[in-house]
Design brief:
Alpha-D-Glucose-1,6-Bisphosphate, Chain A, domain 4, alpha+beta, globular, about 140 residues, 2 helices
């Protein structure tokens, strides 16, 4: 399993930051590892809302089904993604700050089946992907 944790400060309110994170259809606009992202259900956004993501990973396109597990606006958003080979979980914690908001992101990625053989080499790549996503989020919310 790979783990990544990062914190970014952004010059928008906690409410605006949370709304941006929760809009999973916009994920590809700030996370460079996400090639496509779209909501796959209708109704109010919240716990149980579903999305489809296509992730660029090791030169391949990997599709994940994602569900919002926790939706506590504007404080915490937890999402879980999975397919037959991968399970991921990301928790975003948003706190007001003097200059806007602070977002702490904690992500875990677990390979399943025969892919578990690649667990040891996964951490470096996952850290790189997480750092690029944090930079993209910061840049997007700085605008």
């Amino acid at each position: 399993m790979a783990h990544h944790e990062t914190t970014v400060d952004v010059p928008v309110t906690a409410e605006a930051a949370f709304a941006h994170l929760a809009d999973r259809a916009r994920l590809s606009s700030w996370d460079p590892s996400i090639v496509e992202s779209e909501r796959t259900d209708t109704g109010p956004l919240g716990e149980g809302s579903r999305s489809r993501l296509v992730v660029a990973f090791f030169g391949r396109r990997i599709e994940l089904d994602e569900v919002i597990e926790r939706y506590d606006s504007p404080h915490e958003l937890a999402v879980a993604g999975r397919n037959k080979n991968v399970e991921s979980r990301t928790v975003y914690r948003v706190e007001p700050s003097e200059s806007g908001a602070t977002i702490t992101t904690v992500s875990d990625l677990k390979l399943k089946g025969a892919l578990r053989l690649f667990d040891k080499g996964l951490q470096v790549t996952f850290t790189n992907i997480g750092d690029k996503a944090a930079d993209g989020l910061r840049r997007t919310l700085d605008r």
